[in-house]
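Issue: copy button drops trailing tokens. Both records pasted manually instead:
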Amino acid sequence: MASMIYYSGAEFLKKIKPRFSGVMCRGSKMTNHDKLQKWLLTRRDELNARLGKIKQDASRKNSADWSEQAQERENDEVIDALGNEAVLELRKINRALDRMSEGDYGFCLSCGREIPEQRLEVMPYADLCVKCAQARE
């Protein structure tokens, strides 16, 4: 009787990558992945521009008026939170673009199965299938 070999999602991807590299980017999926890649690149540019404006805003001089300084500090907290969110999204986008260039895009990092196209259309930087994402929560 043959024994079963179990792989983690990452190990599975390393095993199948040489055989299936680029499979997700062939045929009709090529067009959709091209659209997703274009969206990811556009979104990355938008986030980089936003971060540039946030950095520029953070380097401005504070007002001399105490009440205005209090309001500026509150605004700075909101801007910092927006900047942190932009950085997190930018990391996800860059990882998705890296996976595209490596041929791993569209496969769950946990179980190795193909991520449904509908999920990628809603969240192009998704790296987990719905089942694994729900299990992680």
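Record 2 (pasted manually too):
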Amino acid sequence: MDYNSRTIDLVKGLGGLSANVCSVIADCWRKAAPTILFGMSNASAESPDDYIAVFAALGEPVRVRILHLIARQHGSELPCTLLDQSLPIGKSTISYHTAILRRAGLISVRKAGRNYYYQVREDTMAKFAPDFLQLLQETEKLDFEAA
């Protein structure tokens, strides 16, 4: 088994992601691996911990679904009420997962009154997983396998 197959199998082991989504995440990981593992950086300030935080956040299918819904706004904000309506999970679970995405730098959050508005941090996505951002924005509905 070659390195590419092992990487895709590792990502598939996260559960709930289709082969296409796994392939894109694995490709992003392969591009980032030299920096994470060996400290090779293209004169950027990202540390291996930054990469680990981003890829750990992307390692949960629910967070990928949330990120997909937000990314489909193409730079606009998504109100928390639309996330509530679009996902079959509770508000506290959505809050938990959006906090992880925010700490990883993948989304920004703005509070206005009692509502929260989410937006993809395209600068972070462009640094760590540009192909994945494009997939999220261009795909109408992500193909998730039953977990």
